[in-house]
Design brief:
Number of strands: 7
Oligomer: single chain
Number of domains: 2
Shape: globular
Radius of gyration: 25 Å
Structural class: mainly alpha
Helix content: 55-70%
Largest sheet: 3 strands, antiparallel
Strand content: 5-15%
Length: about 375
């Protein structure tokens, strides 16, 4: 019971650490460069063009821009759009948090921008980016955007879920059959612990189980949220996948043993080719997390864009004959996305365990990795 409580505490602490890293890596946490003043004529022309574009969107005879709709769905924003378009749209405004070198800390609702059609307190919203109207001002934007809001929501959800599960184990023990939420989450937890951690890391894998559980459930839950029409595409945000991959790189290299580092800087090969092999091995330290980042980002983003594009065929062809085919294919891809949501969480966690396992594994004199069975055999 004590080990399970300690594992849960480490699970929570790692989750909070990764969340903090996500906020730090997010493109919202960046110093805004001083913006040049726009001429009044250009400002009026821009406003007129925006008004014309706005009117065009609500023209029922105007062509539907599927590309813009798809990109809007997968991109981050300062409001949480629920449904509808134009004046009939329903969206939740989110907090705007700015720290300016001249105005100090500012907190207000994103509704003040009126979806980019109005300025507030010297700031305006252009393509979901806050711009200062003062050319000499620099400021930091740490606003709660749609992706950050979903990250907070998923963090609270995971905290509540695993807190209640831990209380259930504390009340009923671990000898009784799982009940309620335990019956659903316990197989997933044991799957990560036994099949992913032990299968790829081997001896000493218990040390890395909290991190692997954190990564697995963060990705899985946010993948599922992203499939909901009003959900945010958090796992399709490159900043989110970047933070997870960087965390994996840090865990892997901090725990790498002397065999891991000697394989990089003293490869088992003729010394004449060391100038070629060593740079390749060093680059490999970065390419592994880069592959993790791109794989999760590309798969989740592509799925959303494909579904939206298939539905958009109905509006492009404007034919009742294309609708059944379009909906059928979209439904097929949506069902496939349910599998991908779990598969990508599994692949990311499995590769993370594989990278950690290769860094902490013992090697024989020939440089080959040894397993627990090899240790047993050598012991006899």
């Amino acid at each position: 019971m004590t080990s399970k409580i300690n594992t849960y505490k480490r699970f929570t602490s790692i989750f909070l650490l990764i969340f903090s890293l996500f906020i730090g890596f997010s493109n919202n946490l960046s110093a805004s460069e001083p913006q040049e003043h726009e001429a009044d004529a250009n400002h009026h022309d821009t406003a007129h063009a925006a008004s014309s574009a706005h009117a065009k969107v609500h023209d029922p005879n105007a062509p539907v821009d599927i590309t813009a709709i798809a990109l809007e769905h997968v991109a981050d924003s300062h409001s949480w759009h629920l449904w509808g378009e134009g004046e009939g749209s329903v969206a939740l405004p989110l907090p705007v948090i700015l720290y300016s070198s001249t105005k100090g800390l500012q907190l207000f609702s994103s509704a003040k921008f009126e979806h980019g059609h109005a300025s507030y307190n010297g700031y305006r919203l252009e393509e979901e980016k806050i711009i200062s109207e003062d050319a000499t001002e620099s400021f930091y934007d740490v606003s709660i955007t749609k992706n950050v809001a979903q990250m907070l929501f998923s963090a609270i959800l995971i905290f509540v879920l695993f807190t209640s599960i831990a209380k259930s184990y504390k009340s009923y023990g671990v000898t009784s059959a799982p009940r309620g939420k335990q019956s659903f989450f316990e197989p997933l937890i044991t799957f990560v612990r036994d099949d992913i951690a032990k299968g790829n890391i081997g001896h000493g894998s218990e040390k890395y189980v909290p991190y692997l559980l954190t990564v697995f459930f963060m990705i899985l839950i946010n993948n599922v949220f992203g499939m909901i029409p009003i959900g945010a595409n958090l796992t399709g945000n490159i900043a989110f996948t970047l933070v997870l991959s960087v965390a994996t790189m840090i865990v892997t290299n901090i725990n790498g043993n002397k065999n891991y580092w000697s394989h990089i800087f003293l490869p088992h090969a003729p010394k004449a080719i060391w100038p070629i092999l060593i740079p390749i091995e060093i680059v490999g330290i970065l390419t592994k997390p880069f592959a993790l980042m791109i794989r999760l980002f590309a798969n989740m983003t592509a799925g959303h864009i494909i579904v939206i594009s298939l539905i958009g065929l109905i509006f492009v062809f404007k034919s009742i004959y294309i609708a059944p085919v379009s909906i059928a294919f979209a439904l097929f891809i949506d069902v496939l996305e349910c599998l991908v949501a779990f598969l990508q969480a599994y692949v990311f966690t499995m590769l993370t365990a594989l990278f950690i396992g290769s860094a902490v594994a013992d090697h024989n004199e020939d440089g080959a990795q040894t397993t627990d069975d090899d240790h047993v055999t050598s012991g006899h």
